[in-house]
TrEMBL record, chain A:
Belongs to the CPA3 antiporters (TC 2.A.63) subunit E family. The keyword Membrane applies. One of its GO terms (molecular function) is monoatomic cation transmembrane transporter activity. It is found in: Cell membrane. InterPro entries: Cation_antiport_E. It is a multi-pass membrane protein. Its main location: membrane. The chain crosses the membrane at residues 30-47. Keywords: Cell membrane, Membrane, Transmembrane, Transmembrane helix. The keyword Transmembrane applies. This is Multisubunit sodium/proton antiporter, MrpE subunit. One of its GO terms (cellular component) is plasma membrane. Pfam families: MNHE.
TrEMBL record, chain B:
It comes from Maricaulis salignorans. This is Multisubunit sodium/proton antiporter, MrpF subunit. Its main location: membrane. It is found in: Cell membrane. Keywords: Cell membrane, Membrane, Transmembrane, Transmembrane helix, Transport. Pfam families: MrpF_PhaF. The keyword Protein biosynthesis does not apply. It is a multi-pass membrane protein. GO terms for molecular function: sodium:proton antiporter activity. One of its GO terms (cellular component) is plasma membrane. The chain crosses the membrane at residues 6-25, 34-53, 59-81. Belongs to the CPA3 antiporters (TC 2.A.63) subunit F family.
TrEMBL record, chain C:
Signal peptide: none annotated. NCBIfam families: CPA3_mnhG_phaG (TIGR01300). The lineage of its organism: Bacteria, Pseudomonadati, Pseudomonadota, Alphaproteobacteria, Maricaulales. Keywords: Membrane, Transmembrane, Transmembrane helix. PANTHER family: ANTIPORTER SUBUNIT MNHG2-RELATED (PTHR34703). Residues 102-123 are annotated as: Disordered. This is Multisubunit sodium/proton antiporter, MrpG subunit. The chain crosses the membrane at residues 6-33, 45-65, 71-93. It comes from Maricaulis salignorans.
Length: 167, 105, 123
């Protein structure tokens, strides 16, 4: 029930934003009609397919994730500057590495946030998911600091609230 | 502001040209897919700057559509070249993975 | 100069700075794609430097947009790029890895992080 209300609210907002017609007495009352029709059809079909759960409608604890994103933004900026410096050197001097990083998050969402954070940070990309960790390709040896990965993993675990399970 | 936006559009066009060079030169398939995806991102930025430059709102909608199609197209190309078919279900995929093992060819 | 005018000039300056930084990141990523030696290293330049560059350009465009609808649409495009770009990069990398495309390394066998420190002499 919460999920269907949330989905309806998001879809209505999306329709109003994209169409720009939010009065019934406007030039095109038809636009609002189509909007109502599509929102109702989408919510009904989603409910009928039984995929109306936490994964489809991620109503998350917003504050910890927002704090985490601010921290992650600083990391991304610093790593981006490092990658640009590496690329702009007159001679390319990189030492790529494959690293395994243990993933100790308690929830599936924590794993997803951690893997996505690693990919978002320039210089490191998650290549594969193994049973107890991630396989990561790093552009240079300076990006493979285990302490940095451990801090990011702990922070993503806290931000995504380990008590809740996705899937 | 118009002058600045024009320079931005030129810069995006340069980046797109470089991506096209990698698209044609790329030795492996994955280089080409990556270049195509990156080219798409630059096209989106070009469209957005173009919309600010010309004052046409529709370009933003087109850019949004392009962002969605770009992502789906990348995944579809990768799926096609892995399974040589687009009509394969999730169940078949996991079966293939189980049969192939970790397929470290 | 009135307050509104100062505000306008400030927004203009921030917008120009943000978009220029974004252009620098995007161009650096493009140059990296040409210069770096193998697929996996190119992936870092193409997939990821793009994300920050695109977000900065979109931030600059939001600051110079006049009405709220344009701002909301631009923010939506930014959100889409922020979510799909790393996913696409991971998809390409994973596909290459699963297909047996080996990265160009000094030694291929990856080691566990705990014995990485003593094994590797930094260049």
């Amino acid at each position: 029930m919460t999920y269907s209300v949330g989905l309806t609210a998001v879809l209505v907002l999306l329709w109003l934003t994209l169409s720009g017609q939010y009065t019934l007495s406007g030039d095109y009352p038809l636009v609002i009609g189509f909007g109502v029709l599509s929102v109702v059809a989408t919510v009904a079909l989603t409910a009928r397919m039984r995929i109306l759960d936490r994964e489809t409608v991620p109503i998350l604890p917003a504050l910890p994730l927002a704090m985490y994103w601010i921290w992650l933004g600083r990391e991304i900026l610093a790593a981006n500057l490092a990658v640009v410096k590496l690329v702009m050197k007159p001679e390319i001097d990189v030492e790529p590495r494959l690293v395994r990083v243990p993933a100790e998050q308690r929830s599936g969402l924590g794993h997803a946030v951690f893997a996505n954070s690693i990919t978002l940070t320039p210089g490191t990309v998650t290549i594969d998911v193994e049973e107890d960790g991630f396989l990561i390709h790093a552009l240079d040896t300076s990006f493979t600091d285990p302490a940095g990965f451990a801090e990011m993993g702990a922070r993503s675990d806290l931000a995504s609230d380990g008590k809740r399970k996705v899937l | 502001m118009d002058m600045f936006n024009f320079i931005m559009a030129l810069g995006m066009a340069c980046a797109m040209a470089i991506m096209l060079a990698r698209l044609f030169a790329g030795p492996t398939l994955y280089d080409r897919v990556l270049a195509a995806n990156s080219f798409g991102t630059k096209t989106i930025l070009f469209l957005l700057v173009f919309s600010a430059l010309s004052g046409r709102q529709d370009a933003i909608d087109i850019a949004m559509l392009y962002a969605l199609i770009n992502f789906v197209a990348t995944i579809a190309i990768l799926k096609f070249f892995r399974y040589r078919s687009l009509e394969i279900s999730l169940a078949q995929m996991s079966l293939r993975r189980a049969v192939d093992g970790e397929d470290e060819a | 100069m009135s307050g509104a005018e100062i505000w306008h000039h400030l927004l203009f300056a921030i917008s120009v700075a943000s978009m220029s930084a974004g252009l620098v990141f995007v161009l650096a990523g493009a140059i990296g794609v040409i210069r770096l030696p193998d697929f996996y290293t190119r992936m870092h330049a193409a997939g990821v430097t793009d994300t920050l560059g695109a977000e900065l350009v979109i931030l600059g465009l939001i600051l110079q947009a006049g009405d709220w609808q344009t701002m909301a649409k631009l923010a939506l495009v930014g959100l889409l790029l922020f979510l799909t770009s790393p996913t696409a990069t991971h998809a390409v990398a994973n596909a290459a890895h699963r297909a047996g495309h080996k990265p160009d390394l000094a030694h291929f066998k990856p080691s566990h992080p705990r014995d990485l420190a003593d094994e590797e002499g930094k260049a």
